[in-house]
Design brief:
This protein is of the alpha+beta class. It has one domain (about 5-85, about 100-105). Helix content is about 40%, strand content about 25%. The chain has four helices and four strands. It has helices at about 5-15, 55-60, 60-75, 90-105; strands at about 20-30, 30-40, 45-50, 80-85. The protein has a four-stranded mixed beta sheet with strand order 1-2-3-4. A hairpin with a 2-residue loop joins strand 1 and strand 2. The model has no long low-confidence stretch (mean pLDDT about 95).
């Protein structure tokens, strides 16, 4: 699955969950400076499908990921970070997205 296909799948899953996803959103705050593949700014929920072809590995460094994870642990935002190497096909990507969205619904974070 390539970057375009993965992002289209994720956008569809997030939209089906009621999120208003905008593509290619720059998140620059608290030492984080990355561009997310999709983000609902009002709900502060998004996703990033990390692929080599898109150059994501240079941007989503261990420090950037740690900063995002710290914000998520504090409940300030929720970003599903997925790596093409771990989730190379549509079935696995769909399961990961749906699991993430199910957990957010359980926490009352979805519309």
């Amino acid at each position: 699955m390539n970057e375009r296909e993965g992002c289209a799948l994720l956008k569809a899953r997030f939209a089906a969950a009621g999120l208003d996803v905008v593509e290619h959103v720059r998140l620059s705050e608290d030492g984080i400076d990355v561009t997310l593949d999709g983000f609902d700014a009002a709900r502060r929920i998004g996703y990033e499908y990390i692929t080599t072809s898109a150059g994501d590995r240079a941007e989503f460094t261990p420090a950037a990921v740690a900063a995002l994870e710290a914000k998520m642990a504090r409940g300030e935002l929720y970003v599903l970070l997925l790596d093409e190497h771990a989730l190379p096909d549509a079935e696995l990507l769909t399961r990961a997205a749906d699991g993430f969205l199910t957990e957010l619904a359980r926490r009352g974070r979805l519309p």
